[in-house]
Amino acid sequence: MGFGNKKVIKEKSLVLVDCDGVLADFCGTIISAVNNKITYQQVRQLGDWDIVKLFNQEEIKRYNAILSEDSFWRYLPVFPASIEGIEKLRSKDCEVVFVTAPWNGCKTWADARKSWLKYYFSTKDDEVIITSRKDLVFGNVFIDDRVSMVEKWKERWKHYDSSLAILCETNTNFKSDLYPRIQTRDGRWRLTEKNEIGEIEDGNL
Question: How many CA atoms lie within 13 A of 168 on its CB side?
Fold first, then answer.
């Protein structure tokens, strides 16, 4: 993966990958379940990772009730582009580890999440790290859709030349100025970066 002749994700890198918003369509699924009248445009106008801001009080209750159900987490739709993206990383001998924050409101969440990852990405148990403090986990590359988490991880490991934080672009974070980022176009992950004069350059996994 890179821009021109510049390597961005090197072979045999340890790549840390978030799940919801990067691999799984969490936002689209929960919004449709809570209030299917909320539009794509409303989500983009919000431009915020905290989609609960789109809900009224009754809808927030429904949101929490749905997320307490094992079936919601076990059957989340996967982004097809992420399957190919992870396969390409593995084909470069990258070690891919999935770092995911728990949902404590669902008692069986951990089992559901591991089952979901195993089904779509053939993961082993030791390839899944469950923590809300993702910034404490070191790798060569960190991929997440939450701007504040990417910034936090980047700040913690900024003194290590081998560390690279990447934002996975979604409808809730596309307004951010944070680069590099992964965008999904034509059904594939593409890496974009700003060059020295502020122009956006395209790359592929």
Answer: 25
Distance CA 19, CA 196 (A): 31
* 150 burial level (CB within 10 Å; 0-12, 13-18, 19+): buried
HSE toward the beta carbon, residue 194, CA cutoff 13 A = 7
**Amino acid in position 110:** A
145-162 confidence digits (pLDDT tens): 999 999 999 999 999 888
Give the rounded distance of the alpha carbon of 62 from its chain centre. 24
Looking at the DSSP assignment, which residues form a beta bridge with residue 181?
167, 192
Closest CA to 144 of 195, 91, 180, 92: 180
135-147, pLDDT tens digit by residue?
999 999 999 999 9
pTM above 0.70, yes or no: yes
| Token digits of residue 180 | 């590099």
